[in-house]
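Materials and Methods. Structural model of ATP synthase CF0 B subunit. The 184-residue sequence of ATP synthase CF0 B subunit from Evolvulus nuttallianus was retrieved and submitted for structure prediction as follows.
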Amino acid sequence: MKNVTDSFLSLGHWPSAGSFGLNTDIFATNPINLSVVLGVLIFFGKGVLSDLLDNRKQRILNTIRNSEELRGGAVEQLEKARARLQKVETEAEQFRVNGYSEIEREKLNLMNSTYKTLEQLENYKNETIRFEQQRAINQVRQRVFQQALQRALGTLNSCLNNELHLRTISANIGMFETMKEVTD
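The predicted structure was written out as tokens:
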């Protein structure tokens, strides 16, 4: 440190006669060089630094202003969105209430239509059963009639001889002729 203070003190005591020389002591010359460089920088760079700081200040202020405008727009959009959300929630509630009543109505209609369909199916079933019963009865009647006819023919064939058979046929032909005359 003594060298640094000595170099400052020795500035005032330069030898007037003599030669120009170089001071090779780094510790003695660095503070002088630094102070000269800093002085030049401050003198010439003060305007540039001031302009840079002013520009930076203006950009920050513009950014703040823009941010405030955007925030205002965002708040306005948020309020609009909240109003739309409230409207949609109200409509959704109405649809839900209307939907429940519509569902109940459709449920009753479906139940009524199902009951009617079941009644129709029951009627069709009963008609089918009656039809099948009637058909079965007719088939049984036809078989019984065929069997009775076959027995009767069998009995007639076994009991009748040719002469009796010819008389029966003649009598039946006579009856048919009489019936024909009556109808004509």
